[in-house]
Amino acid sequence: MADTNTVPDYTFTRELLSFIEEWKSKPGSIIMILHKTQETFGYISRPAAEQLAVLTGIPLARIYGVITFYHFFKTTKPGKYKIAVCMGTACYLKGGQDLIDEARRILNLAPDAEITEDGLFSVDPVRCIGCCGLAPVLTVGKDTHGKLFEKGMMANIIAQYRDAEAAAAAQ
Predict the structure, then answer these.
(1) Distance separating alpha carbons of residues 83 and 148, to the nearest angstrom
(2) How confident is the model at residue 10 (pLDDT cuts 50, 70, 90)?
């Protein structure tokens, strides 16, 4: 029998396994377990979802029902630099969709593409970042960029991360 602690390309850490064990019998556990799994891997792959079904006893169809219902959960690996553009009311009204469109254009993302070919960037709309006073706002990883009104600001933000990546590669 296969080891239930691993799946191709994924090792469920002791911390994650312990978390799953602690939560699997609690009501509403699936959301918490999916959040922790995505926090661990950056997204929830098919093999990870299958492993969760085995570890929790929750049917895979139910797990996928939750993953696909909530916008927060991702089934594809995000870019190294995940650009999360706020689409809350304030940001939407002040140009959130324009930021998404501009980022996708700068990064040459095809309409159906979720990540750049080099794997460095992904662009995702999010419900709310909680920085309404900075609208329109986006995050790249843990960095927050707000009041993005001026043309060229998105290009500068993306260039900043490209430059950091080039500097790291040069070392």
Answers:
(1) 14
(2) low
> Which CATH code for domain 81-170?
3.40.30.10
- Eight-class DSSP state of 128: -
- Tens digits of per-residue pLDDT, 72-116? 898 988 999 999 999 999 999 999 999 999 999 999 998 888 899
Residue 28 — very low, low, confident or very high, per pLDDT cuts 50/70/90? Answer: confident
95 neighbors 146 (Cβ within 8 angstroms) = no
First to last CA, the chain: 44
Please report how the helices 14-23 and 46-56 are oriented relative to each other, as an axis angle in degrees rounded to 10.
Answer: 50
For residue 72, give both structure tokens: 């927060």
- Neighbour count for residue 58 (Cβ, 10 Å): 17
How far apart (Å, rounded) are the C-alpha atoms in residues 75 and 58? 18
* C-alpha to C-alpha distance for 149 and 6, rounded to whole angstroms: 46
> What are the distances in angstroms from CA 35 to CA 60, 63, 72, 150?
16, 12, 9, 35
What residue spans define the domains of the chain? Answer: 6-69, 81-170
- Total-model pTM: 0.74
CB of 33 closer than 8 Å to CB of 56: yes
Question: What pLDDT is recorded for position 6?
Answer: 42
